[in-house]
Structure formats: C-alpha cells, structure tokens
C-alpha cells in the first residue's frame, strides 16, 4: 500500500479525503447509514425539545393516551397526558449521555488495564487478566441489578455501574493487541534510545492499538445503551419523572393494549440507536483493517 | 580503559536460565574499540552476535532469566568510566541512546508507524536533554540534513511508511546519532537494503564516524561489508570468539577453519584453494548451547578435525601474530599444510 507522498505536507490538509480508511468506511453502506441515524438522533435530542410545544414533565390529565398526531402532540401522550415526543427526546439525552459516558469510562479503565497487562506479561499481566476474567464471569445484568439495588439511582450512578461492568471486553482486546505490538522492532528501538516503560506503553504502543479501541468503543456504547434500558425497564435505573428510554418502556407495559405507541416509540428509539452503533462498529472494524481491501 | 578507547568489554559471559540451571550462550568475550575505529563482529545466525550486543545494552530479559558477568566500560558525559554490566535499569536508560546507541537490521519496522519522523527524532533528544519542542525539532532537522536526507524540512512531517527503506535507515541513524554517542552498535544495518543503498549507508556511517570519532561495533554476516567498513574483525562461533585480527589478517589469511569456511561460502572467486565457481558450504548447524560438543565447539562440522584431539582438547585463544588471535588446536599444522598447498 503505497500512497502518493510527493505533494506533502501543503496539501496534507486534504489528504484525509483520499484516506484509504475513510474510503473503506464509506463503502460500508450500513455503517454510513448508522452515522447518519446517530447524527440525526443526537441533533434531535439536543435541539428537538426546544422546538416542541410541550415540556416533558407537564401533566395534562384531560389529554391522557392521545394517539399520535393529535394536535401538537406529534407522538401522542402517555398515561398522565405528558407529550411523548418531548419525553422521548429528553429520554434520548439521558440514555445517549449515559451510554456515551459509560463508554468513556470503560475505555479508560479497559485500555489502562489492557495496556499494562499486555506490556508486563509475567505475573503482573496474568494477575490482571485473571481479575478481568473474574469480572467477566459474573452475569453482568445481575451484577448491574445488584449494584443498582444498593445505590441511589441517579444518572451518574447508573453510568458508573454500567462502566464498571463493561470494561472487561475492552481490556481483553487491548491486551491482545499490545502483547503482539510489544514484540515489534520499534518497541526495542524505543528502549534503545532510552524510553521509559510508561513512555513505551502509552506513547509508542497505545497509539498503534487505537483502531481496535475505537471499534470496541462503538460497540460498547451500543451495549451501554441497551444495559441502561434493561435496568431502567426493571425499575432500578433512571427514576421517573426523569425520562429514559428504558423507564418509558416500563411505564408503557401496563397500557400495551390501550396505547401500544407508548411502548413502540421508545422501543424503536433503542433499536435504532443500538443497531446504528453496531453498524458503525462493523464498518470501522472493516475500515481500520487494511486487509479487507483484498476481499 | 585507555584514553582513546571508547568501549572496553572484558570477560563478558551471558547465560540464559533453562529449567533449574543456566545455559551459557556467550563465553568470555573481550574487545576494545578505539575512537574512530570500527570492529566487525561476524558469525552465522545463532553464534551469539546479537546476544552480545543486547547484553552490552542490557536489553536481554532481566536478572533471574539471564545472567551477565564481566564488564563493559564506556565513558559517561564527563569522561568518567561506567560499567554497563553493573548498572541498573534506571541508570541504563540514561546511557541508551545517549552514550551508546544502536541501529537495527529492519529500518522498516524499527520506526513507530503512527508518529511523524521528526517527532520520533525530537523525542529521542528530549529523553536525554531538556530542550523545548521547537529546539528539539530544529535539532532533528539538522540531523536529517547530516544523514543526507533530501528536502529534510518536508521529511520531518512524514510518517515512516512514506519513506523508502534507505531513507528510513537514515532516519534510524539520525535517531541513534542524536546525542552524539561514543559507541554505535550497528546490528546488520544494511541487510534489508538493496546493494546500492547499502553502499550509500556504509559511506554515510564512515563519514559520520570521521566527523565525530565514534566507535562502531558492526554486526554482520556479510564479508563484503566487513571489507568495506571495518578496521578489525572478530569471528564468533557458538558464543566464543574463534578468530580476530585486522581486516587484512582475517580476510586474506584466515587461519581458523571456521573463518575459512565462512569465507569460502562467499560467492567470489579469488580465494585460494577453491575451485572456480564452486561455492563452499559448512555442513551441519550451530550446536545447541545447552548440549555443546566436547573439545572444540566447531569440531563436529570441521573438515580438519582429528578424533582424539579436536573432540578432547578445548582450544584457547592464541596470538599467532601481532594482533591476530585464533582458537584452534591444529592451527600450526594447518598453516603449514596451507603453505604447502600454495
């Protein structure tokens, strides 16, 4: 893979357009669709609530269970007459935020442990990886529920709980990657010029593992959103009146026959967000792996 | 260590742990390299060349896994002698890339693919010297110029994959020379390059050496390169020095059968006693260090070995003429035979 280099660096600014990684990503139609969906979803959640006629908490008992497209209630109202569209978008803010922050925290913990375990191998590495295995051997949904039952369920707490139960996959991926990278010549070359272990781990090796980390991050967001929905659906997560996609589903279940849209709408939002992130993750995996060009 | 010696290695032994015991892989290596001098270390794969250099740099696995005895003395920044073998990892970090630097066989993989070339050189400087980023970058630029990279300003911002193999090796040399080390260990630096580039790199190393007077330990198995760059040659076999001397002594009148075998295996015609066009080979393989042969380590593969002598008596390093030493119990007889054959 030789790229033209003669016109660097003045035109380097635009070089990314010819970037083979980007090209491979763009070829993955579903991943591009995923990016579009997520962008729309995020923009809607951030700006949408300002454009609606109703606030997500204002109760209007006379207009309970209004079906979608009644008046200015584009998506209808729930059992207390609250506007579903406003609740959906505000819930999106919380659900996406929880997912995103949980991902960030898991990436930090997972990468840190993975890099250290992969670099030191020996008993340090083995010890850390057995710790990871121990965490993995808990069924995470139950672990989450137990933790949630014992803590005060604020969005911050839920984020932490999700993060604590989803960093293990990342550290496994990173550990495997670092273990192979540390055998490469540039690791020895770095030691040769007097680099410290910390420098080699975080400045030489980690940037080389950024591809798998990004892929793992995308898939972790999807899982975190799903996990938040689980917990909230079961009533241990985000507590009403604060909306989240999960607790909207929870509230909707008793009116399933009477007002099915109350369940369908947040359900769709969850499905959309999760599949979009999964598509993006798949696309990134192919794009960051140069070998996929050979197919 | 004399004043004009840049590195003095004495009685260097390296052993690797295997099971309960240690397997010796490098035995009693002694050499010194003076200012502006190049010593070539020659031998087949598995003869202990790289282990020797990595032991000097303390880049082998740490203490319980490997055992290193002896000494390797270099001078620190102030000229005081320091023994690398006795140093801890923390102190060693200030020596590597600073007093002793190393370049490798594979310039293609020795540079980190995700960092720009200029940053990699600048960081090598900033490990040892507190310089601002801008000053380090300016120094990196000067180094790129010094190693003969065209358009160095542009190259600073290139990633390694944007450079050719020869250029990358020049960058590696720039990194190695960043701190003006006293000693440069070059581990087959030209093996991965094609022949014209190889010649350019050797020229470059020679010129840089002329300017800054560094000592070079040049590890190779290519005798053409040895003739080109070295002042003295040390031939290693099974972890021991088997012959050493000046380039002319070793290359034009090799005495140890192993050296002769190696030279006969070089595709050239001018060596006496070799049928024109027929390439010599040395039968067999380098012995496993955990089960060394009795007597002379080379006897099972040697065409001149005599049962009852070579397999019984371990040869010692003998000085046969000024500066020319070898390790063979039969060298006197072989020398007369050789003379007779001529």
Automatic annotation (TrEMBL), chain A:
Stretches that traverse the bilayer: 30-52, 94-119, 131-150, 209-239, 259-281
Species whose genome carries this gene: Pseudomonas coleopterorum
Protein name: ABC transporter permease
UniProt similarity note: Belongs to the binding-protein-dependent transport system permease family.
One Pfam match: OppC_N
Membrane topology: Multi-pass membrane protein
Domain ABC transmembrane type-1: 92-281
Protein's cellular compartments: Cell membrane
Keyword set, alphabetical order: Cell membrane, Membrane, Transmembrane, Transmembrane helix, Transport
InterPro entries: BP-dependent_transpt_permease (IPR050366), MetI-like (IPR000515), MetI-like_sf (IPR035906), OppC_N (IPR025966)
Keyword Membrane applies: yes
